[in-house]
Structures are given as structure tokens and as C-alpha cells.
């Protein structure tokens, strides 16, 4: 009997018992790393290993077959040669398994003579057995909310748990984002590599993610799909509940061609995708890092309902860079109220810019005054959103981040705010962590900070448009 | 693929309430002169045929004809071209249209994509279209916000603000886009529509050239 849709995805993301078929003790094999991922991710459920060649692998007892396991299995992970996948899927069916992750490659994406046919058969057998498959030809999937790393990359477990769920047509892009997100402390929730999408596509996962409580925003890496209207309809339903950011590749011909050999997908004409995505309520990103950065801001911050931005900066130069970028994205620099102006003139000496952007340069060594300035600007009624920018300079004895004041201003006004800050490794890590925990997205690049605000404004537009 | 002949195109647009630049299809120099007198010089002469998709490439469009003498020359040229280029079974003729001098030109098109289905395209026209590539696509059907966003995306809004200050002109453009989308959705036999150029001027918005391709049969 087929499970209901939500139950199937709960079974994938929150399983009790997971079997890994094709686990290996050789660190040169994917099966080794897939098992390592599962063992090291803090998974609370039970892990079973199936491989007739071994008695035990990495300290886990190895069963000769699925059948030999007496308990029922929620999720099976296959890391076996592609030609063995079909037979193993039948065994999964016999065992009553409804959720299967096929990491194995060698299907429609490959140059193998039988690749295309194998994929067709896989699809057919999955249908007969009533099995949902993620993959084949994928690194796997990760659910940080359920301490589950069902992938061949153990380091996905190093990610901070947060609100962004990522669904990707490329495993490589997930790995690029992985390293960036670890470094930038970006919080992720569920990450799925769709692979060849034999019977799990974007539109299967979007309804689940839009009702998933721990997912706050959704990021899609998209190359192209066979049924773009179906994708657009799913996006439209999703954005009524949660913000969704898309990075679509294939802007130029070459990338389009590469996509075809990549995951066996059909990358479509970029221009139509671009228009359609916007029309159906997605927010467009221009590169993978922008994708995850904007999604993170949307997972942490309130919507930007106006267009008037205040820039608070430690150095005038960065204030100008940010002002330029704001204009490019159609924002206005907020004009402060008389009360704010008066207060800023009292707080700050006349050597510095006391209008917008506010330059903290001359009071940098006084954390309390900087904090007062920040709180004053946040509270101004003419300010809809704020960009803070600090830089690392002098020594820590001289310059401190006014963390408490920023947190206080944010929680009091709930105005959307982002920070632009880059520091050498080991500097201000505690402060950054505390700001992150308070919900402040921090970006090393000023353009990402501005783009994040753009995303917060765009989602406001989308919600208004779909009347939610 | 079948290209509609001018009279059919004209009546389809009329039915859909899409304004076309006034013109008359003629089959002789004498008729051409009468039409030009009626429309008023300057005029444009176009060789229209179910066999010719790209008129410009074969020199089938002669602009800014200011008097009878020029008209005579243009007629000779186009009627000769028609006789050589069009097979006897093809319908063809010469279209006399009012010459319109407007700085703003846009292109509007609709077609059926094999995976996306019906799509509308809107962009800046004239000499800028190739370089600026300000073209915007949407899936059909459209909501009013989609048309607004297309106009905004192509930066036409800024041009409209500086060149055509009358807001009713902008409304006219929106009506053309919206009526085209309704026409295209209501007639599945139409494969492709191409309005290029559409003139935007002080007197309103007019389609100067319309190509409609229908599925055979």
C-alpha cells in the first residue's frame, strides 16, 4: 500500500531504522563514506549494514542480505553498482521498504550503453513496488534537524542546524555551498541532491518542505526540468507559505549543453525560466553563494516592507560602496527624522558623517556610544531596514563590536537588518556567533548584504501579489 | 507552418481589439495611388505574401514615400519582386500603410514552447533590441501585475516617462499585450504571433507589422 505523501517524506527525513546496502570497509569506496556519514552524524535511530562480503564494517555488524535483517527498515541507501540496483529494489519491495536513496551512478546521465534503459527499468520497478526513490546518481541527502546524514560526505554534519532547506540538481553545488556555509556559519536544515530524479522531483519535495516546521526558507539550484509548468505551479503554492530562492544555470549556450550530460536533465532556455520563476513568486539569485546567502537572510529576518535603508558603517568607504549598491537595487537611503538627527549630533563629534550613511569612525573606540547610535537609527520611523558594516582593524583592545546594543535594537524594533563583516580567522568569532544566534545574517561581501535586503523586499512583494 | 495573409491578419486583430497602423492592400499602381491619397502621404509600401516571412531581407519594405513619383518607383519595384518571388498559388499584394515617425518601438510576440506551453514575449524594439537585449518573457495566462513587471524589466518605463508623458499611452500598450494574450489563448490553431514593430507615440500605440503563423490544416 502506498503511504501518504507526507508520511513518505517523514520516513525519508526522520527514519528510525536505516539500512545501507553496499557499505564498504575500503576508504576508496563511496560505501565506506556513506556509512561513515551515518555513523558520525549523531543519528539516534538504528543503522544496519548489508554486504555479504563482510562480517562487520566500521564496527557495525554486516548482514548478507536485506532479508536477513529481522527488523523492519524505514530507509534503504544503495551504494552498489548500477546493474545490481534493480534486483536490490525488488528486495526492498519484498521487505516493505518505501523509501530508497540510490547513490549509485551509471544511469541516464552516463555514456553507458545501458544507462538510459536501466533508468527506465528503475522507474518502472519503483512504481510496481510503490517505492519512492531519491536519485540515482546523487551524493544523497541530509537532514540536520533529524541528525541524519544520508550522503557520502561525512562533513555535511559539520553544518550548523538552521532554517534553510536546499534542493539541488547538482551535488557539486551542494558541496560548494557546504564549505561556504560552514565558514560563514550559515544554518541549513535539509539538503537534497536530486540526482537523475527517477521519481522524486522538485515538485514532490516542495509541498513537504513548505509544511516542514523546521524549514524557514527554501533554496533551489535548478538546471532544467521536463515539466517546467509543474515546477512553477509547485513554486507558486510554496511561496504562499515560505520564501523560495532559485539559482538557475544555463544562461548561455555552453552551460546549457553541460547540463545535459550532467544529470541527464533538459536545461531550458534561461530567459523563459527567468520570467516564469519571477511570475510564480520565486526570488532569483545570480550565483550559488548568493542563493544560500539570500535564503539565509529570509530564514532569519522579517520582511522588508518599505524601501528606506539606513547604513551604519565603521568606515566611510564601505558606506559609499553600500550606498551605490543600494541604489543599484532600487533602494532609497533613509532620511532621518529630526529627533534622530538631533540625537546623532549630540552623540557624535562633527568630524564625521552624521547623516545616512552614519560613519562610526571617530567614535569607534567607544562601544557604548556606537551602541547608542545604532539603537537610535534602528528606532527612527523613517527607517525600514538597516545595513550594519564593521571592519576588522587596529586591535581588539581598541575596537569592540557592540553586540548587546545590536541585539537589543533588533529585538526591540524587529526591523529587517543585515551585517557586512569580514574578519581574519579567529577574530570576533564569539561575537559573530552571538549576533548570528540573535538572527542577524552576516555577509563578508557588501553586495551579498544588499542582495539579502533585496530578497527580503522581494518576498514582501510576492506575498502581497499572492495576497497572503 | 502557414503564414496568414494580410486581410486575415487584419480581421483577427480587429476582432481582438488590437490597433493596427491604417493601411490598404492593393494590386495595382493605380490602386496604390488612390490608397495613398486616402491615407495621406508620406506612406510606406510593403510586399505582403503568405510566402514571405522576412520582408526586410528581400527589400520588401519601402519607407517614407512622400509623393506620387516616389510611389510609382516603389510600386514598380515591389510588384516586380512579387511576381518573381511568389509562386502563382501564393497570395500576395502590396500594402500601403501610413508612415509613422515614432522614436519608441517595442516588439510583442507569443508562441507555444514545447515544454512551457503558451508564452508571451515583450521587449524594446528598433535599433536597440539587439544590443540591449531588454526582452522579457512570461507564461500565459497573464495577471495584470505580470504586464507591469514586464514593462518595468525592459526599462521601458523610464523611456515612457521621458518620451511619452501621457499615461493613456501606457494603458494602450498594456491593452495590446493583454488582448494578444487573450487572442492567443482562445485560438489554439495559432502557433506564433509576432508584432514587430509596435509604435508608441503621442497618438497612441499601433502595431505596424503583424505576422501570424497558424498550424497547417
Provide a compact summary of the structure:
In chain A, helix 13 packs parallel to helix 14 (403-413).
List keywords for this structure.
heterodimer; A: 468 residues; alpha/beta; Rossmann fold; 3 domains; seven-stranded mixed beta sheet; B: 217 residues; D-amino Acid Aminotransferase, Chain A, domain 1; 7 helices; 11 strands; globular
Please outline the helices and strands.
The complex is a heterodimer of chains A (468) and B (217).
Chain A (H helix, E strand, L loop, with lengths): L4 H9 L3 E5 L8 H11 L5 E5 L5 E2 L2 E4 L11 E4 L3 H13 L4 E4 L12 H15 L2 E3 L5 E4 L4 E4 L8 E9 L2 H14 L2 E7 L8 H10 L5 E6 L5 H12 L4 E5 L4 H11 L6 H10 L3 E3 L2 H13 L7 E6 L2 H13 L3 E2 L4 H10 L10 E2 L7 H13 L5 E5 L13 H11 L3 E4 L8 H9 L4 E2 L2 H20 L3
Parallel strand pairs in A: 1-2, 1-5, 2-4, 5-6, 6-7, 10-11, 10-12, 12-13, 13-14, 15-16, 15-17, 15-18, 18-19, 19-20
Antiparallel strand pairs in A: 3-4, 8-9, 8-11
Helix pairs in contact in A: 3-4, 6-7, 10-16, 12-13, 13-14
Chain B lengths: L1 E2 L2 H10 L7 E4 L2 H11 L3 E7 L11 E5 L2 H18 L6 E7 L5 E10 L3 E8 L4 H4 L2 E5 L4 H10 L2 H8 L3 H20 L3 E12 L2 E4 L2 E5 L3
Antiparallel strand pairs in B: 1-11, 2-5, 3-4, 3-5, 6-7, 6-9, 7-8, 9-10, 9-11
GO molecular function, one term (chain B): ligase activity
InterPro entries (chain B): Acyl-CoA_Synth/Transferase (IPR051538), ATP-grasp (IPR011761), ATP_grasp_subdomain_1 (IPR013815)
Pfam families (chain B): ATP-grasp_5
Q: Structural class from helices and strands of chain B?
A: alpha+beta
Q: How is the largest sheet of chain A built, in terms of strand order? A: 3-4-2-1-5-6-7
Distance between the termini of chain B: 9 Å
Strand percentage of chain A? 15-25%
Overall tally of structural domains of chain B? 2
Summarize the helix and strand pattern of chain B as letters.
Answer: EHEHEEHEEEHEHHHEEE
- Biggest β-sheet description of chain B: 7 strands, antiparallel
For the record, the count of structural domains of chain A works out to 3
CATH topology of the largest domain in chain A: Rossmann fold
